[in-house]
Specification:
Pfam families: LysM, SLT
Largest sheet: 2 strands, antiparallel
Family: Belongs to the transglycosylase Slt family.
Organism: Halomonas koreensis
Distance between the termini: 56 Å
Number of domains: 3
Radius of gyration: 23 Å
InterPro entries: LysM (IPR018392), LysM_dom_sf (IPR036779), Lysozyme-like_dom_sf (IPR023346), TAT_signal (IPR006311), Transglyc_AS (IPR000189), Transglycosylase_SLT_dom_1 (IPR008258)
Shape: globular
Protein name: Transglycosylase SLT domain-containing protein
Oligomer: single chain
Number of strands: 8
Order of helices and strands: HHHHHHHHEEHHHHEEHHEEHEHHE
């Protein structure tokens, strides 16, 4: 039971070296966050011509007027592996996880509720690449669809990307930003990663690439050589891998099987529209998150959850290219950002050093990376700040 991709994307020489190093180092080895029992032109972009929760605890998504189109039906139509595993070598291993998950249908409901803002958009990206629909459920296994998830090994985000691998994939990190938590960029990077290593190591075999996504290509390649030496085919189901990796594809297939027939397992899935729930609004001037939320007409908590890569309360053009906003609120925010900031909400462009200030403290206060702040102000000795000294906060 395999699925092959015909994609052969050429990487730049330097990127290939960096990515290959991360793969061979087993950069993705980590614990799954799911409980055992339980930017491009791909999204609308609108351009101009305190992180609180919504009142009463209601999510913005509960108030959306959903159309008849349904993301779950669309996802099921893209499943490619559901008939194969029932007849193949993985039957017993997949059935084990179906039994485990179906014992806690409330856990599945909770996780699929968290998937509501992201599922349709991720599925579009999977469809565009011709990949099996099951791939859209990898965040279920990796992070329980929590964009803020972090593992004890250092992996972060929906796709649980390790720091070194994120660096190789171009996902910037700094005090005010972590690209691994940005759903748009991390999704693109994770799917690139899966396809690229399938092409590089496994002649397009996606299942082997998923094993390498979890354990690292070095671990999978060694296991494959041992299987081939024993006269086996060397596909995923032949390999002796770490326990977590042995369970990785079976978990993915198990949750897809439950989503294919949720009523059979007593699972009630939340209603999710088949179209993306968010649009991308370019950040054309520094803006506080609460100000942006007010202009968009949503809670600060809603905007915060849509932009988990932003690690502070200020979005600056030098750090953040865009904000994700509920689709039907984007034009309001675009119009507001095209106007000068009100005096009472303007983000400071300069910090005047006070007695006791440190460069790291100033950077933290303004959600900036220390290295950026030092570079913008030509600071070679961070310990030599003087009271009254003015520091630019934007690099301009």
């Amino acid at each position: 039971m395999t699925y092959h991709t015909s994609r052969r994307r050429l990487l730049g020489f330097a990127s290939t070296i960096a990515l290959t190093g991360a793969l061979l180092a087993g950069a993705y080895t980590k614990a799954s966050s799911l409980p055992a029992g339980q930017l491009g032109a791909d999204t609308p972009t609108f351009t101009s011509g305190s992180r609180g929760e919504p009142a009463g605890g209601r999510h913005f998504w509960d108030q959306l007027d959903l159309e008849s189109a349904d993301a779950w039906s669309r996802l099921r139509a893209n499943f490619r592996w559901q008939d194969q595993w029932r007849q193949g070598a993985g039957h017993e291993r997949v059935q084990h996880w179906i039994d485990e998950y179906s014992e806690s249908p409330h856990n599945i409901r909770e996780i699929t509720e968290r998937a509501r803002p992201w599922l349709a958009w991720i599925l579009e990206r999977v469809e565009a690449r011709g990949l099996p629909g099951e791939i859209a459920l990898i965040p279920f296994v990796e992070s329980a669809f929590d964009p803020e998830a972090r593992s004890r090994f250092g992996a972060a985000g929906l796709w649980q990307i390790m720091p070194r691998t994120g660096d190789a994939l171009g996902l910037r990190r700094g005090r005010g930003w972590d690209g691994r938590l940005d759903v748009v960029r991390s999704t693109r990077a994770a799917l690139d990663y899966i396809e690229d290593q399938a092409a590089q190591w496994y002649e397009g075999d996606i299942e082997l690439s998923l094993a390498a996504y979890n354990a690292g290509a070095g671990t999978v390649n060694r296991a494959r050589r041992r299987a081939l030496a024993r006269g086996l085919d060397g596909d995923y189901w032949d390999l002796a891998l770490p326990d977590e990796t042995m369970d990785y594809v079976p978990k993915l297939l198990a949750i897809a099987a439950i989503i294919e027939a949720p009523e059979r397992y007593g699972v009630r899935l939340p209603a999710i529209d088949s179209g993306p729930a968010f649009a991308r609004v370019p950040v054309t001037r520094p803006v506080r998150l609460d100000e942006a939320a007010r202009h968009a007409g949503v809670s600060t908590g809603t905007l915060s959850r849509l932009n988990p890569g932003l690690r502070g309360d200020i979005a600056r053009p030098g750090q953040v290219r865009e904000l994700l906003v509920p689709t039907d609120r984007a034009e309001r925010l675009v119009a507001a950002l095209s106007r000068p900031a009100p005096a009472d909400s303007a983000v400071p462009e300069v910090h005047v050093v006070q007695r006791g200030d440190t460069l790291s403290g100033i950077a933290s206060r303004h959600a900036l990376a220390v290295a950026d702040l030092a570079r913008w102000n030509d600071i070679d000795r961070p310990d030599a700040l003087q009271p009254g000294q003015q520091l630019t906060l934007s690099g301009r």
